[in-house]
Amino acid sequence: MTEQATYSLHALELGPMENFIYLIHDLHSGRAAVVDPAWDIPEVLALARAQDMNITDILLTHSHHDHINGISEVLAHFDAQLHLLKAEAQFWGRQLDLPTLHHGGDCIRLGETAIEVLHTPGHTPGSACYRVGHELLTGDTLFVFGCGRCDLRGGDPEQMFVTLRRMAERLPATTVIRPGHNYAEKDTSTLDEQVEGNPFMQFDDAEHFTRYRMHYHDRHRHAPYGPVRRGEAMPE
Ligand SMILES: [Fe+2]
């Protein structure tokens, strides 16, 4: 018997940095969670209205400006609860109005839909991925055939190496990746396709990963990201 999904997932590509803003819509209750609200909030609200969604929750993958600049505009229309990892709130240092601060492994209930919170440091200390059904909203941790940069404040390539390795080991290969930016030749992928073709998932040690992440890979040179054959990401 196939399990009926309790939710539908909508993606909007918005703003000058090709951000994906997602709406998780619990079909039973009509509740919705907006993930990383930013840029063109009227467009987010129009979609919510058209689908009769009640936005009750805001989920942040991390605190960078391009993922959060629409929070107050959403809150002007909906009385929504803000969710982020405690580690990210501490890193961010901004005074937040009654947020729910999570730890990795927490579960957020959205009506009949369960959303698991994963702590995935590397891009920022409190970066989160949200797992719903067979899908994983990866923010700036994992992109399709790429990963988030680790050279900004709070970034750590060794942590990113461990994070990506854990994802590959612990999540089902069929997991569908929903990234925070549209930097690749396609907007979604599966974990097994990423383990195979994402250069950042092909390194066996943190040292080579770090060299590739910090000194070799360049978004402007490599975008749109596509698959790389194992061993061919970086010249020796
Ligand atoms: Fe970011």
Please tell me about this protein's structure:
This protein has 236 residues and is of the alpha/beta class. It is built from eight helices and 14 strands. It has helices at 41-50, 65-68, 71-75, 86-92, 157-170, 191-197, 206-216, 219-222; strands spanning 7-14, 19-26, 31-35, 54-59, 81-85, 100-102, 107-110, 113-119, 128-132, 135-139, 142-143, 146-147, 176-179, 189-190. Strands 1-2-3-4-5-6 form a six-stranded mixed sheet. Strands 7-8-9-10-13-14 form a six-stranded mixed sheet. It has a two-stranded antiparallel sheet with strand order 11-12. The longest helix is centred in the last third of the chain and has 14 residues, at 157-170. Bound molecules: fe (ii) ion (FE2). Fe (ii) ion (FE2) binds at residues 62, 64, 123, 140, 148.
Summarize the structure.
With 236 residues, the protein is of the alpha/beta class. It is built from eight helices and 14 strands. Helix content is 26%, strand content 28%.
What is the first-to-last residue Cα distance? 50 Å
Cα gyration radius (Å)? 17 Å
Biggest sheet overview = 6 strands, mixed
Quickly give the structural class.
Answer: alpha/beta
Task: Record keyword descriptors for this entry.
single chain, 236 residues, alpha/beta, six-stranded mixed β-sheet, globular, binds fe (ii) ion
